[in-house]
Amino acid sequence: MLAPELLEYDLGKGVRAFSTCRKGGYGVGTYATFNINPFYGDDEQTVSRNKTMLCDTLQIKEQNLVIPHQTHGTNVRCIDADFFLKGEQERTYLLENVDALITDLRGVCLSVSTADCVPVFLFDEAHHAIAVVHAGWRGTVAGISIRALQEMNQMYSTDASRLKVVIGPSISLEAFEVGDEVYQTFTDAGFPMQRIAKRFPSLASSGDGMEKWHIDLWEANRWLLESTGVPLENIQVAGVCTYTQHDRFFSARRLGIKSGRILNGILLL
User: Fold this and answer.
1) What whole-number distance in Å separates Cα of residue 149 and Cα of residue 193?
2) Are 264 and 37 in contact (CB under 8 A)?
């Protein structure tokens, strides 16, 4: 059995950030082979074995790998010392309907699961605090990245101008075809559409010249963060399209909803 393959990011000293790839675990079929998400129908024992493997790789306790149940909302949960004093049932309740996590605790791996949606990693080196965000198109429109930054500012006095950010593997502009109603939602929310949207021949057309809108979620999230004061040079974009690289990363649009998920994690060392 191979060790899990991780795509790792350089956010500076004192932090480790990564996205899991598909290779190295025990899963089969659309969950092959390294899925840790328990919410999309994978075998529980297989998920547990993969989770153990990842925690061994990260050299952390399994309870310190925090995985929320996401619902494309904007709830941000602070993971503090009191969280780990609660029972398992209460911890599970606190992670329900949560799409972003923040902490300043060392050795705690915050994570979100994605399979085309955008993972956003935030690192405040000055105050030794971190966040990870699940930003699908709904969360992006609702400004969940900004919500996470605001929570970091409130809890840890995070200064946006000193924040370091990575936008991880997710669906690209070229692959993210949307209906007019999604385009209009972004327009109504005040996004700079000339910067984040383009029209391309429909992916489903047969050379009939029909065009559809495509949204650049990478650029949309970068614009949101930049608008709050994060310097553009402090925002890295992985530039990895999960839709086109579905052999290496899970893609729900390619594999279906009942498939594995990328685990995007960040922890303070």
Assistant:
1) 23
2) no
Structural domain containing residue 11: 6-171+230-268
- Asked if residue 1 is part of any domain, the answer here is no
Burial class (CB in 10 A: 0-12, 13-18, 19+), 91: middle
The CATH number linked to 167 is 3.60.140.10
Q: Name the amino acid, one letter, at 180.
A: D
Cα 5 vs. chain centroid, distance in angstroms?
A: 17
pLDDT tens for residues 90-113? Answer: 999 999 999 999 999 999 999 999
Give the model confidence (pLDDT) of 165-212 as tens digits: 999 999 999 999 999 999 999 999 999 999 999 999 887 765 666 899
Task: Compute the radius of gyration of the chain from its Cα atoms.
Answer: 18
Helix (H) / strand (E) element for 72: namely: none
- Give the span between the Cα atoms of 68 and 98, in whole angstroms: 6
In this prediction the pTM is: 0.96
Residue 192 inside a domain? The answer is no
Total of domains in the chain: 1
